[in-house]
Amino acid sequence: MPIRQDHIFCYEHYEDLQDGLIDECPSCGLAKDVQYEVCLDCYRAERKKPRRETQSRPPSSNTWYKPEYSPAWEKGDATADRFFVYILKLDGGHFYAGQTRELRERLSEHRDGRVNTTAGRHPQLVWFGVLPTREAATTTEVHLKKLVDSNPREIRRMVIGFRDLVGELDYT
Question: What is the reported pTM?
Answer without folding.
Answer: 0.61
